[in-house]
Amino acid sequence: xxxxxxxxxxxxxxxxxxxxxELVIETLANxxxxxxxxxxxxxxGTRGMGKTTIARLFAKSLLCETxxxxxxxxxxxACTEIDDGNHLDLIEIDAASRTKVEDTRSLMDNVQYAxxxxxxxxxxxxxxHMLSTKSFNALLKTIEEPPSHVKFLMATTEPEKLPDTIxxxxxxxxxxxxxxxxxxxxxxxxxxxEKIKYDISALDTIAKNANGSIRDSLSILEQCISFCNGDLxxxxxxxxLGEVDVSxxxxxxxxxxxxxxxxxxxxxxxxxxxxxYEKVTDTIMHIFYExxxxxxxxxNLSPENVNHDFYKDILTKIKLEDLQLFYQIAISSKKxxxxxxxxxxxxxxxxxxxxxxxxxxxxxxxxMLTPKKLDKVSNKSxxxxxxxxxxxxxxxxxxxxxxxxxxxxxxxxxxxxxxxxKHSVLDVSELxxxxxxxxxxxxxIYPSLCVNDLLDKIKxxxxxxxxxxxxxxxxxxxxxxxxxxxxxxxLNEKYEKVKDDPDxxxxxxxxxxxxxxxxxxxxxx
Length: 525
Prior knowledge:
Blueprint: H1 6-9, H2 22-33, E1 40-44, H3 51-63, H4 77-84, E2 90-94, H5 101-109, E3 121-126, H6 133-144, E4 150-156, H7 164-167, E5 171-174, H8 180-194, E6 197-198, H9 200-209, H10 214-227, E7 231-232, H11 234-240, H12 246-257, H13 261-269, H14 277-296, H15 308-314, H16 320-333, H17 343-361, H18 382-387, H19 400-410, H20 415-421, E8 424-427, E9 435-439, H21 448-462, E10 469-473, H22 479-498, H23 502-511
Parallel strand pairs: 1-4, 1-5, 2-3, 3-4, 6-7, 9-10
Antiparallel strand pairs: 8-9
Helix pairs in contact: 3-4, 5-6, 8-9, 9-11, 12-13, 13-17, 14-16, 16-17, 17-20, 20-21
């Protein structure tokens, strides 16, 4: 065993040394003290949380020469051999490399034989979810009714992959991920023992990057010790791990709140070339979460929060609905990072999307997005429309989309709900079966809370008692689609007016040029 590796050097030798798993340890210790020992145990949880270590400690409690105890001596031959990994009656099996049913049957054939020197023969199966279906079937009966001298301990990161028949025969212990504070305190103890200088904020950064895994935190710690030459300075650790300065994060959010695209791009350009853009996205999402809580109740804005002054200022610039939209855009876009050629470019697009979608939802009037041919639906102000009785068209005809345009004005929508409405079409031709058709391409974008909010406002507007059904369809004439069609129509109209102009024709022939429709603008009244 290489004792220079921190994860191995500081691997717990007793239950008392296990970090962050108090409930599991207390339960196991009590079962040993009460002599309530089961045939099979399953330990599950994320990587690096101590599943295999706890299983070994439990085996040590069962095999210690003094007695079956929750506090093994650690000095007898059984304890020292388990620590060294060479005890004959503790059989460790890597299920990832022994998935075949022949391996399992061979293993089960040896179960009947008595232990060589201890009171139990303990089988520790790591990553048990990797076994094949036939291997599980071969294991099933033995796990349920093993010989009295046999105990099974299993560890896995994916318990959902185990058959229910196996799960039902095990005592299942789910190990919790470690909190940032637990990991920071653990690292602090190790560095004090190693007599290595450190900044406490550097340990906080390492703990956040460990994602709840004790072992990962120790691996990152070793990298940082090497990079910092034995002196863990906060600035060096943050640079090494791609952490972004808080001020830059705040500038990004401020640019989004001010809907300032050029400023946002400029701020993103200031990011360190080694920045972890996925973690930056996570940080921004967490800030949106904290801002949302503060929006709902100012008491949630703790004066002790390092971002308190920034939060207080930015709350006056961002609406609650926009925070929901921003959070949904970020979480929906995260899954595409692995497809992006440049993570920085993808991050920039995510942030710009927040500005673009907000600008879209804050149009002064829905008529800005409505084709001129639909202006005949209503030439009244929003205030007048909202105050008049609702009239539902009882027939299914081409006016359904027109009615939906005028309805959106009177629903007082904003943020993500308005964005959803503009990608939908409502059909209330049958009062007992109203249907909201949503663009199929937007199926995974809107959270259920947003959809329910729009449905409630529609039901209130039309005084509907029946539930509104949701259907996702392609090819809908939604407000967004009709805006695009209207813009295209206007461009074509402008093009037809200028394409035969003698001066334009002369320029085309002279320079061999073509007309760019989108560049045609009226510059003189």
